[in-house]
Please model this.
Amino acid sequence: MMKSPKIRFKGFDGDWEQRKLSELATMHARIGWQNLRTSEFLDAGDYMLITGTDFEDGKVNYSTCHYVEKERYDQDKNIQIKNGNILITKDGTLGKVAYVEGLSLPATLNAGVFNVEVKDENETDSKYLFQFLKAPFLMDYVSKKATGGTIKHLNQNILVDFPIAMPNKAEQVRIGEYFSNLDNLITLHQKKCEQLTILKKYMLQKMFPQNGSDKPEIRFDGFTDDWEQRKLGWLVDNDVIEAPKDGNHGEKHPTSDEYVEEGIPFLMASDIRNGRVDLENCKYITKERAEQLDKGFAQEGDVLLTHKATIGEVAILEGLQEEYAMLTPQVTYYRILDNKRLSQKYLYAVFHSESFQNEMQTKAAQSTRPYIGISAQQNLTISLPCSTEEQQRIGEYFASLDTLITLHQNKCNELKELKKFMLQNMFV
Model:
């Protein structure tokens, strides 16, 4: 007998028991002499071939599967796949698990995958078993059993003895459903995030002029004027924005022993990702040390642009608790001086545009650590609508997209943390 978990659904009590996987399910894989040659893979057919590379977020992506002839499908009944089966990769990327559902054609397995099938559905819920196998427990167990360093193959003689924590069937069903719902929510937010990211990339191509054109392909109603092409330095020279000068931009880099727990944020290129500045995990230096540095001061609302090693990451500095932040020579700040002539959010958006990013990458000095100096940056071309109102509309649109992307990404991360916590507390 085993103890009960810390968290469980109401109405369930009593200790759990420990069972070996081989007691609960059968395990089969394609026998070596049955292995398929790549010439036998078909692009279409009546008999599907499932490979570990077809696993995606705990499911089988049938659209990527190949097909085989009927004689290959008939060759081994033990690896003929049905809905409710559990698949585990035993070669390549070990321990990836997929639950088979929505299968509409006869299917068999390629080499490198175990077919796990519950022996008694009255005793074992397949979705519960799938969730238990998909959790980190399996690979932790395999790692402890492995000898000779890196695991290269998941042996069946290790898998058969894998211990499964088992409540009664009704509790299994509740737990399996709970984690299935969590997985579905995580996938939903991941897909929404991916869709919005694709939309953003598309609109960054279409809402800014391309290839010397003076108008974008897509724009808001009511705007018809031609756009201007300006060098970034023109905006600096005309007091529209402020930027640091070459040779006067945070030259003296603090050493690691000068970092402190609280103080002035010291921002590096690695702190700027996906349109956000990571102020929670960045380094800090004392105010006295910051005052010794030359320039590199960034203020709330500045648009930051990475230009060394990591090229072209963009963010608006927001949420700054101190009066200013310091920048490494990897990061440039651009500060709006005249918001009647240039919108902050538009500058952020145009820095993301395909044309600006391509020009920046092209003109960066190519080496193991690519670099584009501040003077070279200010020689880059940006497209400007004549109307500040159109700038603002564009800036707001992309800011809204970024907010939605961040919202779904944060929700996805929260759900993953919740799942991790529940895996630790809902199983023995």
Summary: The two ends are 11 Å apart (CA to CA). The first helix runs from residue 21 to 24.
